[in-house]
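To the structural biology subgroup,

Please find below the input and predicted structure for 10861_t:CDS:1, which we are adding to the shared reference set this quarter. The sequence is reproduced verbatim from the submission form. If anyone notices a discrepancy with their own records, reply to this email rather than editing the shared folder directly, so we keep one authoritative version.
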Amino acid sequence: MQYMEGGNLRQYLQQKKLTFRDKLDRLRDIISGLKDIHQQNLIHRDLHSGNILNSNDRSYVADLGLSQSVNSQKGEGQVFGVLPYVAPEVLQGQPYTQASDIYSFGIVAYELLANTYPYSDLNLEDTNLALKICQGLRPDVDELKIPPLMKDLIKSSPINTKEIVLLSQKPEKRALEPELKKLEKEIDQPLTEEQKVLISDFIQARKMVIKDRNNEEAEDRA
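Predicted structure (tokenized):
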């Protein structure tokens, strides 16, 4: 696997002055990478800007160390990851799902578009932050100087809405496919073969880990 000279997304944002088009490209990369992970029936469980690596002006979802199969019951009730990116239902003790990954992506999308750490105006060590997130606290998307399309992509919404948004309080209101289609309309640029290979490398490496874990569990049951 090649060296990611751009570092993680937070470092990349500090090093580069990205245009809005650049940010759309990065978002498309991240959505595509996460979608590929989900198509392997995996949950990442630790998606944040530190786990998105950059090389040759492309972004790749990395560090699958905490990922697991959608059917796995391991770690149920435990909270992994970095607090600002953790979905509210997980903070309330529910299991991680692919929908919780999508919520994490929504926070990453805000960070990328705003070029600032989520909840940067709050004390992230505040024990009440998790409670506030469960009660509906979200980054202020409306203050961003971005097109309404992008605000609609990531903003939170009332619980009873039919709208699909990334930061919805309800997991079933989150989805990647509509957002990818929106971005593809904005970006007329196909994925590179290099990106496809790197994403495949990440997926294959994780599949090997999952296989080893399944073998260990089978041995434990024997």
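Summary notes: Residues 1 and 198 are 7 Å apart (CA to CA). The radius of gyration is 17 Å.

Regards,
Lab coordination
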